[in-house]
């Protein structure tokens, strides 16, 4: 029989984190532990306000169905995901934490790191970007100087986007990506893309809102810079829908419901000829480790959560010259700093 425990945290950011949707100083985190015969697997899901899922909601939903999960006969993580999806059809965040914990447990029972279960080579992991939240131009430059990195993701969408990028480029030769979180309209997006093309921006994430699918199709035909769907790509079906308006998709474990659907989404996006980014939602090292074990299968990586937080929940993941290095230990290969 499985045994499940859960815990909530509020992890502080190193700097207040601002995107076009708002500012936060702490990241609410939900952690689950699934134990079977003395072996424990761990999973994580951050709460994101604009998706309407809180840590309290995850806890309440889990407590309501915990006896059913604990009686589940674990024979395969993918089959377990479908079971969880039927239990929590409206809470992909909770499913993500549980799916991640199941995979961690499965890897430990098999005695191998997850990337080996997936047939991936960690030497093929692309470098991750480091996110610079919206701030005064001077403060954004200070953040870049504080942590030299080979790729920066610059949050945009509240004005001064061109000036911010130019100021950052004046102090670094790093590649620059821009993430708008839906903060532009079609006309401003065309103007920005023309200017950003001159500045050799590598890619732009979610230039328009999720309601602007027709406008995105127009912008897709216009843009010489790759456009990557973020908020427009949540569930598996969204990969197909984004194929007409984006050059690629940003797949996030928390949004889609964990490692299991993310692997299917990566496969389908590649079949459609789309670029694939794996993204984070400011997870600690625990959740980021799950991203790292899949990262050798994608083109772009955004896995900087632990670098943005001033407190972590786990250890066992490392960064070197912009590259994330998963542990060779079984499962996720991480240990909780604060045992449950």
Task: Explain briefly what this protein structure is.
Helix 2 (77-87) runs antiparallel to helix 3 and helix 5 (137-146) packs parallel to helix 6 (161-169). The protein starts with a strand and ends with a strand. Helix 5 links the parallel strand 4 and strand 5.
Characterization of the model:
The chain is of the alpha/beta class and 340 residues long. It has 2 domains: 3-111, Enolase-like, N-terminal domain (Enolase-like, domain 1); 116-336, TIM Barrel (Alpha-Beta Barrel). 38% of the residues lie in helices and 24% in strands. It has 13 helices and 15 strands. It has helices spanning 55-70, 77-87, 92-110, 114-117, 137-146, 161-169, 186-198, 213-222, 237-242, 253-256, 259-271, 285-294, 305-308; strands at residues 3-19, 22-36, 39-46, 130-132, 151-155, 175-179, 204-205, 227-229, 248-252, 275-279, 300-301, 314-315, 318-320, 323-325, 335-336. An 8-stranded parallel β-sheet has the order 4-5-6-7-8-9-10-11. A 3-stranded antiparallel β-sheet has the order 1-2-3. A two-stranded antiparallel ribbon has the order 12-15. Strand 13 and strand 14 (323-325) form a beta hairpin. Helix 2 (77-87) packs antiparallel against helix 3 (92-110) and helix 5 (137-146) runs parallel beside helix 6 (161-169). The longest helix is centred in the first third of the chain and has 19 residues, at 92-110. The radius of gyration is 19 Å and the shape is globular. The model has no long low-confidence stretch (mean pLDDT 96).
């Amino acid at each position: 029989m499985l045994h499940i425990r859960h815990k909530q945290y509020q992890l502080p950011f190193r700097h207040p984190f601002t995107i076009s949707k708002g500012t936060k100083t702490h990241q609410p985190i939900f952690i689950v532990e699934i134990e079977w015969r003395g072996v424990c697997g761990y999973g994580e899901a951050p709460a994101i306000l604009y998706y309407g899922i809180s840590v309290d909601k995850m806890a309440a939903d889990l407590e309501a169905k915990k006896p059913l999960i604990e009686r589940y006969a674990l024979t395969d993580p993918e089959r377990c995901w479908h079971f969880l999806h039927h239990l929590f059809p409206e809470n992909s965040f909770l499913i993500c934490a549980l799916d991640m914990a199941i995979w961690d447990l499965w890897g430990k029972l098999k005695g191998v790191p997850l990337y080996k279960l997936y047939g991936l080579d960690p030497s093929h992991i692309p470098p991750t970007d480091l996110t610079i939240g919206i701030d005064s131009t001077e403060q954004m430059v200070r953040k870049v100087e504080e942590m030299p990195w080979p790729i920066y993701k610059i949050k945009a969408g509240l004005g001064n986007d061109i000036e911010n990028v130019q100021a950052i480029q004046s102090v670094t030769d790093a590649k620059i990506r821009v993430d708008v979180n839906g903060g532009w309209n079609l006309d401003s997006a065309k103007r920005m893309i023309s200017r950003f093309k001159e500045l050799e921006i590598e890619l732009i994430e979610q230039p328009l809102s999720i309601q602007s699918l027709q406008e995105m199709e127009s912008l897709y035909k216009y843009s010489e810079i790759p456009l990557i769907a973020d908020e427009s790509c949540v569930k598996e079906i969204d990969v197909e829908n984004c194929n007409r308006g984006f050059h690629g998709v940003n797949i996030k474990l928390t949004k889609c419901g964990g490692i299991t659907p993310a692997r299917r989404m990566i496969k389908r996006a590649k079949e459609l000829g789309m670029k694939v980014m794996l993204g984070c939602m400011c997870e600690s090292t625990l959740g980021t480790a799950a991203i790292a074990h899949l990262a050798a299968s994608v083109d772009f990586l955004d896995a900087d959560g632990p670098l943005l937080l001033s407190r972590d929940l786990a250890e066992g993941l490392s960064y070197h010259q912009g590259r994330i290095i998963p542990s060779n230990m079984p499962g996720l290969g991480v240990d909780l700093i604060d045992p449950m």
